[in-house]
Every structure is written in structure tokens, then in C-alpha cells.
Write a structure and sequence with these properties.
399 residues, alpha/beta, Rossmann fold, six-stranded parallel sheet, 18% strand, globular
């Protein structure tokens, strides 16, 4: 350990709007959680829409009060580049005041170069699998289905973005991987295990909680799929398994999320089945989870889907692929199948439909360990990693 008892001093760089949706929510909870764990955090962010519960120093790079540079003016990539350039310039005056720098994809290259020059260790967030892997498997899945990703979609192959992100991988001292699956996609591409740090995401227990009274007794299962309806989430595998199982005869399969162009049309026959209910985009996901028995997520590629921990907190039993990045143990507090293994997922639906005792055992085991899934726990894990990275500057760091 470093020869000091003071908190680790972290510069957290995030090029988007902290506290907004998706990764912006993840980043906000990371900062708040690690501050609760004792880190001294200085944030540089494009803008922010939510105050932290802890004392965190916040600097906005793309906003001044209520004024913010419109994304349409520069475009998302140029906005990230501008943020990165500003943080790199600010970093020059922070030498000796920062122990670790935490950066996010597409807004990090300049900051990583300057940090290396100053000798400050860096960690790069990896909210998804290796980008080359993600592009490849999504393309293959789309080809199987006979559809294409919409132009400009984050999973539509973009060689410029891929080159930029792979450069960031090389520049960073460490890559923060939120699941074993993400780490594996880097190991398979020759990255050293010593460069990969395993951390985790969390869920908001005040928003996602179990209520046994909200889950009515019935003969059939209530299964929920929640998220963007696109090939990478594997909804087509879930529907095939559901309709081949005995569970669909008495149960209900709920789909909460919007579809990319062409995907709903490709699945039209399956979506038209009486047991399948297409709900569209919903703002009441916690309520839907409390009413559901199962959350199904047969993803072919993820980082660590937040919806899986949120579902566990709400009392859903997980039926997920081994690429979903879910924090669960197969047969103990959830059921896991290999990517694309529709037969195994069909069997899981059949088992829980015919054996409600097993369903309740899995649910009880899942709820017993949800304190390990909160953002507070995630913050403590991340703070511990920061401390380990801080130590690295007193020894040999990976290249």
C-alpha cells in the first residue's frame, strides 16, 4: 500500500451528461458510490443533470450554467474529442494532486497520453465487450436474421470508432471490465490478464425492490424481456425458446422496449402469438419487474446488463446467457445458458413452469444476496481497485 493514510485522489473524466440515461446513469452511480467508499473524486464531465449525495468536485467542459454546446452543432464524436482535449489541458496543472485517472471510451486519448507523460496511472471503463468483437458478432447475428443495423447505430460497424477505441485500449494502463465475459473478449485478443481489472455495476435498491404482494399467484409464468429490442439482446432466441416450451401455454411473455427497424417485422409471427405481449417503451420497469417471475436476457454481447441486477433486486429469477454479464450463479440464484443455445433456454422455461418450488428457491437465494449488487457495494469494489492502481505507480505498471 502507498505510504499515506489519505483517501485515493481520483480524476473521473466523462464526456457526456452525467445523471442522464444509460451509461450516464452508470457513471453517476459510480462517482457517487466511490465517493461514499471514501475516495476524493474530482469530476470533469460534459454536463451534469443530477447532484451527488456526497462531496464531489465537479467541472463541466461543455456547459456553463444552463448553457450547453448543442450536440447537433459538433456531433457526438467531436463533443467527446473537445471534452478530452480540455481535460488533458487541465491535467497539466493537477500533477501531484491526482493519484488515479478514470476515463470513458471515445473521450480519453489525449487525457491518457498526458497522464502517461505525467506518470499518473489510468483506468479505462469498458462498459461493453471489445468493440471489434461486438461489431463482429452483431454483424453475424444480423446476417442470420436477414436484417441490418440502422446506419449510425452504436453497433453498426464504424472503422473510425473502432480504430479510436483500440488506440485507447493501448494507451490506458488498465481496462475496467464489469464482467468475466468482457474480460474474456480482451484476453482472446491477446491482452494481458494483468491489464484487466474486474469490477462490477450495481442497482438502485430504493427504486428496484421486491414486493411479494405485487406478484399474483397463477398457473402460468410471467416472463419479462426489458431493453432495446435488437439482435444483440437475443430476443429472437428467447421467443423461440418460449414458444417451444410448455410454459407458453399458460404463461405470459412481456416485451418492454423499442425495436430497431426491420427486427419486429422479422419476428412478426412470434410476436403475434397470444402469449406474447409487446408493450413498447415503458417508464414503469420496476413495477413490471415486481409483477414478473422471470427476467430473460439471452444476449449475444453485453458489458454487464444493469437490468439483470435490477431484476434480481425486484425479485425476478434470471434466465440469461453467459454473455449477459449478469452477477449470478447457475443453478443457485439463476439459470445460465450458452449464447444461442435455444434448447437449454427452452428447458429452463419448462423446468420453472413445472417446478414452482425450484422457482421459489432460486428467488429466495437471489434475494438473500442482493446487498452484494448495490451501487454502494460497487463503489467499494471500485475504490479498492483505485487503491491497487495507486500502488502500481510505486512498482512496475503493465504497458
Amino acid at each position: 500500500m502507498p505510504s499515506t493514510d489519505r483517501p485515493v485522489r481520483v480524476l473521473y473524466s466523462f464526456p457526456h451528461k452525467l445523471g442522464a440515461a444509460r451509461i450516464c446513469t452508470t457513471a453517476w452511480h459510480q462517482v457517487d458510490g466511490v465517493a461514499k467508499a471514501g475516495a476524493a473524486v474530482t469530476v470533469f464531465t460534459g454536463s451534469i443533470c443530477r447532484e451527488f449525495s456526497m462531496d464531489v468536485k465537479v467541472h463541466t467542459t461543455l456547459a456553463w450554467g444552463k448553457l450547453r454546446i448543442p450536440a447537433r452543432m459538433l456531433g457526438a464524436r467531436r463533443m467527446c474529442a473537445l471534452h478530452d482535449s480540455i481535460v488533458a489541458q487541465k491535467l497539466k496543472g493537477l500533477a501531484g494532486k491526482i493519484d488515479v485517472i478514470h476515463v470513458w471510451p471515445l473521450g480519453a486519448a489525449c487525457t491518457l497520453k498526458e497522464a502517461k507523460r505525467l506518470g499518473i496511472p489510468t483506468v479505462l471503463e469498458r462498459p461493453n465487450a471489445h468493440t471489434r468483437y461486438a461489431y463482429e458478432v452483431v454483424k453475424q447475428e444480423c446476417e442470420k436474421l436477414g436484417i441490418a443495423m440502422p446506419p449510425g447505430h452504436e453497433h453498426d460497424y464504424n472503422p473510425a470508432i473502432l480504430a479510436h477505441e483500440e488506440n485507447e485500449y493501448d494507451l490506458a494502463d488498465y481496462l475496467l471490465c464489469p464482467s468475466d465475459f468482457v474480460a474474456r473478449t480482451f484476453l482472446e485478443r491477446g491482452f494481458s490478464a494483468s491489464k484487466l481489472l474486474r469490477h462490477q455495476y450495481g442497482f438502485n435498491e430504493e427504486q428496484f425492490y421486491s414486493d411479494p404482494l405485487a406478484r399474483p399467484e397463477s398457473k402460468g409464468l410471467t416472463v419479462l424481456f426489458a431493453g432495446g429490442c435488437a439482435p444483440r439482446k437475443g430476443l429472437h432466441y428467447a421467443l423461440d425458446a418460449w414458444l417451444h416450451s410448455s410454459a407458453h401455454k399458460e404463461g405470459t411473455f412481456l416485451i418492454a422496449g423499442g425495436f430497431i427497424d426491420g427486427y419486429a417485422e422479422r419476428l412478426s409471427e412470434r410476436l403475434a402469438h397470444p402469449s406474447v405481449k409487446v408493450l413498447g417503451h415503458r417508464d414503469d420497469i420496476p413495477k413490471l419487474m415486481r409483477k414478473s417471475d422471470i427476467l430473460v436476457l439471452p444476449s449475444i454481447e453485453e458489458g454487464s446488463a444493469l437490468v439483470t441486477s435490477e431484476a434480481r433486486g425486484s425479485g425476478c429469477v434470471l434466465l440469461v446467457s453467459d454473455a449477459a454479464g449478469a452477477i449470478c450463479e447457475d443453478g443457485v440464484n439463476g439459470l445460465i445458458h450458452r449464447v444461442g443455445d435455444t434448447r437449454a433456454l427452452t428447458n429452463h422455461f419448462d423446468r420453472l413452469h413445472s417446478n414452482r418450488k425450484q422457482l421459489e428457491t432460486l428467488r429466495a437465494n437471489s434475494l438473500a444476496t442482493i446487498p452484494n449488487l448495490t451501487w454502494t457495494t460497487a463503489g467499494a469494489v471500485l475504490n479498492s481497485l483505485y487503491e491497487q492502481v495507486q500502488c502500481s505507480k510505486f512498482s512496475v505498471r503493465p504497458t
